């Protein structure tokens, strides 16, 4: 698409030169043991500063991985700095512009286009070759999200994909659970609706057949998934990238179905926190990302299972994103530091079985076949979903456009407009922004 030139805009890197590191790291957390390493003035090891936007269980598992890497590599010490996701990217951009960028940073695949176009991260083909990293080991769908004009700018860490969690107790009561403990769902829209209707008839009145919030991004993820399941669907922009292309029959078909679930009460209204509802045993089905697995399996008394998002239309598809590892652009980065950074990123990706304890699907294809991965409960039940993922398209303004869609979906959920009006309003807003960009 236009606007994704990979020529580095190094002039931007000199815009802010007096920012201090203390400003950048306000609100960040640092592993205590690593902080001691950072303070060792005479340490001969190469020290890498590693920024992450993880929360809760994700950060626990990543910290354990960093500690293990440090124990195994005497010549490299990684200091992890973890920030809140809500301001992580603004901090990272400021750090890059001021010349205080970390040596390694996690960036979601959806956010990569902006960082690539602005020259904020390094191209990795040559450094990866020197480090012995073969990009061919990664799941092709995930690797594609890191490639721009045939060049790779990030090491994929995982896939986090939309899946379906279900309460086995409630499904058994409704007679829609088979002997293997899997949901019994007939094909198509009618089959999934009948599945939820049987649940509603069997469970207590205060239990939601399907939990989805009326606000936030969840229903947008579901819409994007179903839209991509329809043959000929899944288009976001026209071929030239000059206009939105989401006001069409396939997009409307998927949205009409979701709207019907809300209207019928199969998704009850005004759910503020769908995960909490399922976690507390007040929902039979929850559609959300795989990151919920780690928290749910620690919940005592919750008899649950998880499967890939059901295929309601022509082919499997589910929204997904990926955590990727990048080397931010700096005024100067010594070759030995770059090599150390690649060594670290390669090692982290290769230890995806440990990272999958957080719920994510490893990016290295062979890991899902290992004993370490198969020994984990639930993960193997949805690992195959990584082969039919639907990422958002590569666009520098993609997050802004998603936020526009979220606002229009919320208006629809609260009865202010129809699905058709929702898609048209979102398209108009996106087109207005695209016109400002001269696209």
From TrEMBL:
* Keywords, comma-separated and alphabetical: Sugar transport, Transport
Cytoplasm as a keyword of this entry, yes or no, is: no
- Has UniProt tagged this entry with the keyword Zinc? no
Please name the Pfam families in this protein's record.
SBP_bac_8
Which PANTHER family does the UniProt record give?
ARABINOSE-BINDING PROTEIN-RELATED, DIACETYLCHITOBIOSE BINDING PROTEIN DASA
Q: What is this protein called?
A: Multiple sugar transport system substrate-binding protein
């Amino acid at each position: 698409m236009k606007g994704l030139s990979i020529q580095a805009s190094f002039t931007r890197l000199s815009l802010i030169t007096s920012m201090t590191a203390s400003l950048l790291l306000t609100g960040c957390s640092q592993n205590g043991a690593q902080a001691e390493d950072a303070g060792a003035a005479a340490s001969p090891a190469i020290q890498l500063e590693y920024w992450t936007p993880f929360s809760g269980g994700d950060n626990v598992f990543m910290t354990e991985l960093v500690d293990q890497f440090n124990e195994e590599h005497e010549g490299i010490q990684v200091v992890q700095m973890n920030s809140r996701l809500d301001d992580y990217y603004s901090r990272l951009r400021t750090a890059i512009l001021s010349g205080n960028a970390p040596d390694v940073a996690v960036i979601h695949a959806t956010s990569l286009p902006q960082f690539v176009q602005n020259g904020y991260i390094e191209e990795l083909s040559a450094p990866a070759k020197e480090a012995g990293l073969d990009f061919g080991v990664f799941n092709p769908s995930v690797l594609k999200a890191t490639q721009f004009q045939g060049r790779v700018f990030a090491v994929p860490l995982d896939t986090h994909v939309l899946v379906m969690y279900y309460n086995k107790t409630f499904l058994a009561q409704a007679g829609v659970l088979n002997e293997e403990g899997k949901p019994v769902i007939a094909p198509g829209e009618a089959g999934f609706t009948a599945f939820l209707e049987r649940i509603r008839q069997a469970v207590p009145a205060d239990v939601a057949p399907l939990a989805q919030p009326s606000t936030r991004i969840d229903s947008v993820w579901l819409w994007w998934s179903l839209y991509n399941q329809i043959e000929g669907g899944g288009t976001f922009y026209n071929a030239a990238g000059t206009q939105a292309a989401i006001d069409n029959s396939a997009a409307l078909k998927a949205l009409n179905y979701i709207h019907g679930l809300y209207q019928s009460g199969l998704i009850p209204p005004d759910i503020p926190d769908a995960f909490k509802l399922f976690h507390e045993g007040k929902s039979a089905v929850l559609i959300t990302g795989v990151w919920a697995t780690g928290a749910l399996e620690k919940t005592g008394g919750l008899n649950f299972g998880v499967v890939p998002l059901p295929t309601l239309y022509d082919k499997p598809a589910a929204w997904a994103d990926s955590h990727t590892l990048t080397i931010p652009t700096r005024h100067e980065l010594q070759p030995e530091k770059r090599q150390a950074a690649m060594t670290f990123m390669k090692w982290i990706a290769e230890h995806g079985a440990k990272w999958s304890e957080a719920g994510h699907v490893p990016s290295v294809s062979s890991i899902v076949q290992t004993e370490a991965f198969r020994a984990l409960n639930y993960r193997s039940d949805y690992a195959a979903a990584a082969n039919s993922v639907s990422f958002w398209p590569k666009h520098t303004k993609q997050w802004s456009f998603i936020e526009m869609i979220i606002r229009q979906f919320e208006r629809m959920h609260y009865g202010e407009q129809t699905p058709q009006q929702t898609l048209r309003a979102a398209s108009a807003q996106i087109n207005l922004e695209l016109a400002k960009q001269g696209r």
